[in-house]
Amino acid sequence: MTTPESLQIPTDLLPRDGRFGAGPSKVRAEQLAALVDTGTSYLGTSHRQATVRNKVGEVREGLTALFNLPDGYEVLLGNGGTTCFWDAATFHLVAEHSQHLSFGEFSSKFASAVKDAPHLSDPEIITSETGTHPRAVAREDVDLYALTHNETSTGVMMPVERPAGASGLVAVDATSGAGGLFVDPRQFDCYYFAPQKSFASDGGLWLALCSPAAVERIESLAASQRWTPAFFDLKIALDNSRLNQTYNTPALATIHLLASQIQWFNENGGLEFSAGRSRRSAEILYTWAEASDFATPFVAEPAERSHVVGTIDFVDQIDAALVAKVLRRHGVVDTEPYRKLGRNQLRIAMFPSVDPEDVASLCACINYIVGNL
Question: Does residue 150 share a domain with residue 76?
């Protein structure tokens, strides 16, 4: 009798690389090799000197090219990751009243940060059923609309569009979407993210693509003498970013890995290349799930199914957690669902570093496991 402990997946079915985690994500071997090649002259050097500042400048210039940013847009960066940026935005992006689209664990966190800020009014929060996304509504009193490009917990993506008739800034949490999903920069004022997803680096850093209107908001709120801890001060981040540095010491390996990934994207066709790889992986995953008799895409609306984080439900007779355990024993890791969603499903990252062929192999492995158990 075949048991989960004795089942062996044939080696010719296994992906060449079994990393499908939603973050930290797969890091390409080429990125690591590039770090090793220059590490002795880069790691362990001052982040205020040219060696590191040139690399930060490479990141900023590379992102400007990757997203085809219009004239006047600036790339800001700072330490702390997206969680830090939410707090920073309560000081220097939200003037008084914001509207938030909340449709999962991560899209709700910025709203919570604003709600807890004593100097801001309670935000308007628009929610929708799990597995869907809501839509922003233009309001005269809203000075910032908080959108999320991709909800990592549920596998829902939404288009980035300015609400019709809205005059407030549009800030987009793109933590798991940036680099893996298409976006028109004219539709946002602040597109912020961290590098541990599509950019195949480590966490602890935030980056924000800011329009002239967002820069003006940062500068005007800083001039208003609103008290702000220096670590959360976006004006300090703006000033330092223009010097190709961060306010306090960054993780140098993170910046190097990030720069390598941006270079790989741009040298191969930019966002068309990187987002195209994720789109192809998504086509493979969802086509397999729709044809399966035991699996189905969790997100019902095809247009809302994420190209970077796929969530696949299993019928009750199949234990998805057991499938994930067998996969992990074979070196195919981090396919477990988001813990708070509590569904019988797998969550599969399809960031640009993940080869679409490996997604196809993963589907074949799941078929093999289910067929033999």
Answer: yes
